[in-house]
């Protein structure tokens, strides 16, 4: 196990989660490669995201629109804007080819909005690309453990 690499990817993943919880969406958008994809599959066991229905399959343009809807109050599912706290754990490097690092993690997200506290649990898979001084997001897959059940208001960024 490469503990230095584990430390670096953990710091990156924690930073990304902190940006989302504190509404630093421009900084979050800057973490992505130009052709990166943000995916929330409906079937938590699905791996063929390109050929199946997903809650989200966002490229750069769609991520930008998602942020605009979130901060602009244009989406009923994000108005008022939710307050979130996410805990990221069980971070494991699955592969490293020297350029791309694949990482799996667990996320527990608490959302408070409209006097209601909700809890979302997911397995996350990150594909990170090495850049000078760190990483960029190439792909992030959020596999909610209950994604094939009834979900309400997941219009914000998980």
Describe this protein's structure.
With 158 residues, the protein is of the alpha+beta class. Helices cover 24% and strands 44% of the residues. The chain has helices spanning 3-21, 25-30, 60-72; strands at residues 32-41, 54-58, 83-96, 100-113, 116-131, 134-144. Strands 2-1-6-5-4-3 form a six-stranded mixed beta sheet. A hairpin with a 3-residue loop joins strand 3 and strand 4. The chain is globular. The two termini are 28 Å apart. The model has no long low-confidence stretch (mean pLDDT 89).
Key attributes of the depicted protein:
single chain, 158 residues, alpha+beta, six-stranded mixed beta sheet, 3 helices
Strands, count: 6
Low-confidence spans? none
Which geometry do the CA atoms define? Answer: globular
Percent helix among the residues?
10-25%
Give the helix tally.
Answer: 3
Overall pLDDT metric: 89
Q: What profile does the largest beta sheet have?
A: 6 strands, mixed
> Measured on Cα atoms, how large is the radius of gyration?
15 Å
Question: In oligomeric terms, what are we looking at?
Answer: single chain
* CA(first)-CA(last) distance: 28 Å
